Amino acid sequence: MNFTMSFSELMPLAPVMIVGLTAIVAMLLTAIKRNHNLVATAAVMGLNLSAIYLLVMLFGSSFAPSNVMGMFMVDQFTVLYQLIAVVAALACCTLSHAYIEGYKDHREELYLLMLFSVAGAMLMVASSHYASFFISLELMSIPVYGMLAYTHQRTKSLEAGVKYLVLSATASAMLLMGMAYIYAYTGSLSFYDSVQALIENISQPMVILGLGLIIFAVAFKLSLAPFHKWTPDVYAGAPAPMATFLATAAKVATIGLFVRYLLTSGAILIDSIVTILTILAVLSIVVGNLLAVKQVNLKRILAYSSIAHFGYLLIGLISMTYASLGNVSVYVITYVLTTIGAFGAIALMSSPYNNLDEAESLADYRGLFWRRPVLTAVLTVMMLSLAGIPLTAGFIGKFLVIMAAVTTQHWFLAAMIIVGSGIGLYYYLRVMVVMYMTPPETPRIDAEKEWGQKVGGIMVLIVTAAVLLIGVYPDPIIQLALETEILSPLHFMLSQQ
Fold first, then answer.
1. What is the C-alpha separation between 197 and 215, in angstroms, rounded?
2. Which has more pLDDT, 30 or 446?
3. Nearest of 170, 105, 112, 176 to residue 144 by alpha carbon
4. For the chain, what is the mean pLDDT?
5. Are 210 and 242 in contact (CB under 8 A)?
6. Span 411-420, mean pLDDT?
7. 74 phi, psi to nearest 5 deg
8. CA distance 124 to 389
9. 107-133 b/e (C-beta count within 10 Å ≥ 16 → b)
C-alpha cells in the first residue's frame, strides 16, 4: 500500500479535517484560559463549517467520488451520512451548553470529546477497509465512554460510562476476531477487493463465523436484540445530551458503515447472513416494543423504542433492491430528527445542576401542557413521529420500509413492522396522555421559563418544524436519498434488476 500522497488527494476528507482542527483549537483554548462559552462557540462554528462544506460537496456539480489511500471511499452516500452525523453533533452541542452551564467542575472537555467522536463517526461512514473500519469505530467509541460518565457526581452517569466501556470492548474484540477469520481466507483487508474471494470461500464455516462475529459486533453498537442489554441502562443513566449523541450520531455512523460493508463485501448475497439479519430484525421489533410497554421512565421508553426502530431499518436492508437503499437513508434521516427532538425536550426539562435529578420519570411530565404548552407540543410531535402517524416524518420513513418489504415479497417482515408499530402506538400515546393530565400542585422538575430563547430551545423548535415539513412534503428528502448512491459493484447489479 502506497502511503505517499499529496494534499489534494486528502481533500475529499476535508470535512473530517475541519472537525479535527476544531478539536485542536478547542484544546488550545482550554489550555490558554478556561471559558465555557468560548469553547462551545468554537465547537459549534467548526461543526457548522464542516456542515457547509458537506452541503457544497453534496449539491455542487463538480463533486467526483474518490478512493482515499484505498481505505476511505468518499461518494455521495458518504457525504450524506457525514452530514447527518454533523447535524446530530451540532444539536448535541447546543443542548449540552445549557445543560452543563451550572456544572461545578471543568465543562470545556465535553466539547473536545464530542468533536473527536464526530471525527471518528465521519471516518466510519467512509471506511472501505477493515483497518479503517476498526480504527474509526474505536475513535468514535472511546470518547463516548467519557461523555456518558462526564457528570460523574451522579452515580447513574458513572455507571452508564463503565457499563458501555466493558460491553463495547467485548464487541470490539468480536469484531477483530471476525476480521481475522475473513482475512485468513480472503487474503485482503479491502471490502472491494475481497468480494470474489469471499464468495468463493463462503462454504468455509470459519468465513461464515467471521461474518457472523462482525454482524454481532455491529448489532451491539446498534443495540439490536439480543445484544441490547446495555441500552436502557446507558440511556437512562447518561446525561440527556450525551444520550442524544449516542442515539443519533453514533448509530448513524454504524448503520452507514454497515450498509457499505454489506453491499461492497458481497455479504448481502449470502443466504445464511440474510437469515441472521432477519432473525435480529424480528427479535429487535418484538423485544423492543414489548419491553417498552411496561416502562415508566421516558429515557428507557426511548431506549427500547430505538431497539425496535433499528429492527425496522434492518428489514429495509434485507429487502434490498435499488430503491431500498434510498428508503434506508430516508428512515435514518427521519429517525435522527425525531430522536434529537425527543431527547432535546428531555434535556431542556432537566439539568442535574439545577435540580436533584433529571426529568426522566413519566410522573415528571404530568400536566406539562398546563405549564409549558410549546414544549409539550414539541414532545407530542416527536411521539407521533416515532409512532409513524401520517403528516410526520416518521410516517414517511416507516411507509417506505414497508413498501420495500412488500415489493420484495417479504410479507412476514412487512406484517412485523405493522404489528410492532401498533404496539409502539400504545406506549407513545401513554406518554402523551400523561402530559395532558391535571398537573400536580408543585412539580418536582420543570423547564426554565425562557427555554425557547436559548440555543437548545431554538434548535428543538427548528427540528420540530423539519419533522412536520418532511411529513407533509417529503419529496426533496426522498430525491436526495435516491441520488446518494453507494459505489459498489453489488449496488450496480441491483440497480439493473
1. 19
2. 30
3. 112
4. 86
5. no
6. 93
7. -100, 100
8. 32
9. bbbbbbbbbbbbbbbbbbbbbbbbebb
Amino acid at 287: V
- Under 8 Å CB-to-CB from 296, ≥6 apart: which residues? 361, 362, 363
C-alpha 115/C-alpha 368 separation (Å) is 34
Cell numbers 442489554 correspond to 229
Would you say 79 and 58 are in contact if contact means Cβ atoms under 8 Å apart?
Answer: yes
| Cα distance between residue 464 and residue 355, in whole Å | 26
The answer on pLDDT for 71 being more than 90 is: no
**What pLDDT, in 10s, does the model give residues 171-206?**
999 999 999 998 888 888 888 777 777 777 777 888
Segment (H or E) for 67: strand 66-68
CA atoms within 13 A on the CB side of 468: 10
Higher pLDDT, 441 or 108: 108
Q: Which residues lie below 8 Å from residue 496, measured CB to CB, with a gap of 6+?
A: none
Evaluated on CA atoms 137, 138, 143, 145, the torsion sign reads positive
* Per-residue CA distances from 479 to 329, 435, 474, 476 (Å): 11, 36, 9, 5
Q: Which band of pLDDT confidence, cut at 50, 70 and 90, is reported for residue 488? A: low
How many other C-beta atoms can be found within 10 angstroms of the C-beta atom of residue 59?
Answer: 11
Residue 333 to residue 330: CA distance in whole angstroms: 5
In terms of phi and psi (left: phi > 0; alpha: psi -120 to 50; beta: otherwise), the region of 229 is alpha
* Alpha-carbon Rg for the chain in angstroms: 22
187: region left, alpha or beta (phi > 0 left; psi from -120 to 50 alpha): left
pTM for the model: 0.92
Which among 235, 105, 223 is positioned nearest to 160, based on CA atoms?
235
d(CA 26, CA 399): 42
**What is the domain partition of the chain in residue ranges?**
13-495
328/351 Cα distance (integer angstroms)? 34
Residue whose cell numbers read 414497508: 402
481 φ/ψ angles, rounded to the nearest 5 degrees: -65, -40
Is residue 72 classed as helix, strand or coil in its secondary structure? strand
Give the list of residues 6+ apart from residue 89 with CB closer than 8 angstroms, or none.
47, 114, 115, 117, 118, 121, 245, 249
